[in-house]
Structure formats: structure tokens, C-alpha cells
Amino acid sequence: MGYVKLDPKFVQGLNDWIDAKNLKRTEIVEVFAGDGKLGKALRLPKENITDDHSWTGATQSTNQNWIQSAKANVYEKPEDATGTIKRFSLKKKQISLLVMGFPPDDTSAYEAAKELNSYFPNAQILYIGTGGFTPRFPIASYSFFDHTEDVDDSSICLKGKRENFDSLVRENYNQIINDEIIATLKKFTYCDDDEEECIAVHEGSKWCKQ
User: Which of 35, 81, 168, 191 could form a disulfide with 13 if both were Cys (CB 3.0 to 4.6 A apart)?
Assistant: First the structure.
């Protein structure tokens, strides 16, 4: 997530939420991380901040700026989101929260959500982007939104106030961008009530609906 300026209010709210929920930062992973500035702001270990470096060659200024930031912030090997999830599973490391900000407009976010559910079924996704796939803001894919649902976050007590994900994170993000770009908690779900039917429909195809 390197194309969006990180507002201090949003970052602080997200860090407060992470602390209040007692989430271990070793179990929080950012994929599609770009230059890794969000992951760094969340104080994640470098090996938990990954990107496939598909932005390489975009523009000369982007390359120079991002290469420097990515070298400092991001896991040293180019790695796609599913590769990161598999690496954590193979190393028997836990993922409790998968952060993805502005994932590319292809099926990679869907594949990551599906893989996360396979290896870490209790994990949640912190998604930053549009509320659905639209031609105006082509982020993620129809497959991703067909196979994820929003999670209602339980309230927490923080500094004597009742807070939750919306009050600490989502509202701050809406204020600094606009109502079309949101930060929300999601979880993988099958697009059919019957898991076997969902799998059968999408067998051999990365796309759910085009």
C-alpha cells in the first residue's frame, strides 16, 4: 500500500486498536505492501511485510523512491500474497490478521483470502479500498467481494471509552479520504450456502464472476 498517504490519525487509531485487541504484531502480516510504509508504521517485523514488486518499472521516480523504502521496510524476497501465507504455514507461524491495502485489480486478493481461510481459518482481513469492485476504482475483483463478508468487531474499552474498529480505524480513514474508500474487517466466506457447491462451481477457475 504505497500509493496512499498515511494520515497519522489513521495509523494511530489502527495501532490503538491492535494494542487494545491484544493482537501480536508477529501474527499481523501485510501483503501487497508496496514500499512497506504502512507495515512499518504498524511496527510489524520486516518478514511480515511482503510484496511481489510488480510495481518495478512503473516510473523512474516511483522506482527510486520505492526501491529505497522497500529495501528498508519489506521482506527481502519478492513474494506474492499466497506465497507469504504458505511461508508462514510452513514455518508454523500464526497469522491472525492479514492487511491488504488497495490490492491489484485481479484475482490475487481473492486467492489470498481463500488461501488464508485454508491455512488460518480464524484469521481476519483488514481490507483498505473500495466497498466493492467498480470500473471507477478497479480494486481487487468481483471474486474477492463475492467471497468475503464484513466482520462486526466487538467493542473494547480504551482510555475509559467504549471503542471498536469503526470508531478507531474506519471513521478516521473515511475522514481523510472519502466515503468511497474504506477500511474494514473482512473474512473469507463461500459464495454458496453449501461449501461443496461453491468449490464445485469454481473448480479449475480463478474467477468467480466476471
Answer: 168
